[in-house]
Amino acid sequence: MLEVLVSLDFGYKEPNDCSTLTVAQVLALQPKQKVGKIKAKVVWLQAGSKLVNFRGRQKEVKDCHVADHTGKIRVSLWGGLIGKVAQGVSYVLTDLSVREWRGLYLTATMNTTIQVSEEVLVPESVARQQLEVEQQEEEEVEQEEVEQQEEEVEQEEVEQQLEVEQEEVEQQEEVEQQEEVEQEEEVEQEGITTVREPVCGIQLAYQRQCSSCNEGQLAFNIKAINHRCEACGFYQKVGSYVKAATGTVWVNKGNVKLTLKLTSTVLMTYLSQNNLQELLADVQLVEEHFLEVGMFVIQYNANNVVVVVTTGNV
Ligand SMILES: [Zn+2]
């Protein structure tokens, strides 16, 4: 079944901006080539970050994997960029550079910017692709005996990193400059606004979501046998669609009434962090909870989509 899906490309909305490369296009490039812009979802984030020694200074580096409908690639983030990505969130990343070590990957440069974008669809076939670093980390969890091996790998990795960096003094200087600039800007993450307010209105409803791309379905006939996803086009059994609560919250910000979209992913994260999953049995219980709690800290992006919600009473 997966093989069939790989070749499909149903009415996917290509970005208007032709300078935006797909992951597949990036994977066709050569090491050291520049990538102006990619739009992709972070599908995996390294558990911690790694300190790399470089010219007497320790540099923090963290890997993530990003994907779109065409493929998946590793991205190395440096210094201040590390805190700008979260797993499951889609971003526009600019000014990256292609590197090669255990396959092609991307590294951030001094000009790299990271902004939250609308959700990028990732077919399950792509999401399941395993890249090497990810495999490494899974093994680490499973068997501790591998630790020594891991250390060797890490050392190898550090050496490799040093090699790359020594070749590219200029780039490193650029990253340093960038870190300085970012320390000043750290307070406000680009494109993300934070409000600390009570929720003054909420409307939630159940929707069926595609198990492949997570998009909600507007027209869903529960009595049908199969249903074609309105977003990714995959034709699937009705039972494979997940019942999810999604909706809108209203928050007063000064004199402005904000209307924010609450996705089921963000809602589920909030409910599970507060051990409130059982409220999902009745969507009205969730609505009541939001009106009763009081203060919330809500972060939302430029498209008025909530990216993080937490209670503000801590
Ligand atoms: Zn879908």
Identify the CATH architecture of the largest domain: Beta Barrel
Low-confidence stretches: 11-16, 140-152, 182-188
- CATH homology superfamily of the largest domain: Nucleic acid-binding proteins
Named CATH topology of the largest domain: OB fold (Dihydrolipoamide Acetyltransferase, E2P)
Which CATH C-level class of the largest domain is it? Answer: Mainly Beta
How far apart are the termini? 47 Å
Describe the structure.
The protein has helices at residues 2-6, 23-27, 124-127, 132-142, 147-167, 169-185, 264-273, 283-293; strands at residues 20-21, 34-45, 50-54, 57-67, 72-78, 90-100, 104-108, 114-116, 193-209, 216-217, 226-228, 235-237, 242-253, 256-262, 295-300, 306-311. Helix content is 27%, strand content 36%. The strands form 3 sheets. Strands 9, 10, 13, 14, 15 and 16 form a 6-stranded antiparallel sheet that branches. It has a 5-stranded mixed barrel with strand order 2-4-5-7-6. The chain has a two-stranded antiparallel ribbon with strand order 11-12. It has 2 domains: 2-185, OB fold (Dihydrolipoamide Acetyltransferase, E2P) (Beta Barrel), CATH 2.40.50.140; 193-311, no CATH class. The structure holds zinc ion. Residues 210, 212-213, 215, 229, 231-232, 234 line the site of zinc ion (ZN). Zinc ion is lined by residues 210, 212-213, 215, 229, 231-232, 234.
